[in-house]
Design brief:
Blueprint lengths: L8 E4 L8 H15 L9 H16 L6 H16 L10 H5 L9 H11 L1 E6 L3 H7 L9 E4 H4 L7 H10 L5 E5 L2 H10 L4 E4 L15 E3 L2 H7 L3
Parallel strand pairs: 1-2, 1-4, 2-3, 4-5, 5-6
C-alpha cells in the first residue's frame, strides 16, 4: 500500500505526534508527588511512562469513560506501582495537567505547511474539553476533529477512522500520521488507510508487526514524504 498519488486529507494523532505527552505526564507526577513529600527523580521517567502505557491501555479497554477519568484511574494505579500512597481524591492532578502538555518544537512550523496544502483533521484519544485546552498549543484551521468522546471508544478500535471516513464520504486521498504503532499504525493497516509512522524513538517493529506505509522520526520528514 503506497501513499496516494493525489493527497487531499491528512489526519493527525495528537499526543505523541504533535504534543510531547510523555514529558507532560512525567512533570505532572513529579510536581504532585513533591507536594505530598514523595520524591520522583528524573531517572524514574522511563518507569512511569512504561506504567502509563500499560495501565492506560487496560483502562481504555473497559467500558467507555471520558479521558479525564481514564487519566485519574491511571494516576492512582501508577502511584501504587511506584510506592506513592496517592489518595484517589487527588488524582485529578493528571487531567488538570493536560493544559500544560507542550507541543514538540517542530509542530507549529511543520503544521503550517500542511494547512497551506491539504485539508487536515485531528483523530485523538481524548475528550473534547481536554483537547480544547491542548488546541491553544497547536493553533490552526483544522477542517475536522474526531475525539474518543465523540465515538465513545479508544483507538486502536476502528471507530475514529470509520467516523472520519463517514464524514468525508471516502477513504481515497487520505493519509494518517501517527506516533503510536498500537493506537494508529495497526488499525490503519487493517483498514487499508495509508499511514506515516512518526517513530520518534526509533522503536523496532516487533515480531508479527507489519511495516507502515512510510516511517520517519519527525514531522519534518513526514512533511517531506508528502511533498512539502
Amino acid at each position: 500500500m503506497a501513499l496516494p498519488a493525489k493527497v487531499q486529507w491528512v489526519t493527525f494523532d495528537v499526543y505523541g505526534t504533535l504534543i510531547d505527552w510523555e514529558t507532560g505526564v512525567f512533570q505532572a507526577f513529579k510536581r504532585e508527588a513533591a507536594r505530598e513529600g514523595f520524591t520522583i527523580e528524573d531517572k524514574d521517567k522511563a518507569e512511569i511512562i512504561r506504567h502509563f502505557h500499560e495501565i492506560s491501555r487496560q483502562v481504555e479497554s473497559g467500558s467507555y469513560e471520558l479521558y479525564a477519568e481514564v487519566l485519574r484511574q491511571t494516576a492512582v494505579k501508577i502511584a501504587k506501582e511506584i510506592g506513592w500512597a496517592l489518595e484517589p481524591s487527588r488524582s485529578g492532578f493528571l487531567p488538570d495537567s493536560v493544559a500544560r502538555w507542550m507541543p514538540f518544537k517542530e509542530t507549529a512550523p511543520q503544521m503550517k505547511k500542511f494547512f497551506n496544502k491539504y485539508q487536515t483533521a485531528l483523530l485523538s484519544n481524548i475528550d473534547d474539553k481536554l483537547l480544547g485546552q491542548t488546541r491553544r498549543h497547536i493553533p490552526g484551521d483544522y477542517d475536522l476533529v474526531v475525539t474518543a468522546q465523540q465515538v465513545r471508544s479508544y483507538k486502536p478500535d476502528p471507530a475514529h477512522f470509520n467516523e472520519f471516513a463517514r464524514r468525508i464520504g471516502t477513504k481515497k486521498g487520505w493519509v494518517h500520521v501517527g506516533s503510536s504503532y498500537y493506537h494508529d499504525v495497526e488499525p490503519c493497516l487493517k483498514a487499508k488507510i495509508p499511514v506515516i509512522w512518526v517513530n520518534r524513538s526509533g522503536a523496532p517493529l516487533e515480531t508479527g508487526q507489519k511495516k507502515p506505509t512510510e516511517e520517519c522520526k519527525t514531522l519534518l520528514e513526514a512533511a517531506r514524504l508528502l511533498g512539502l
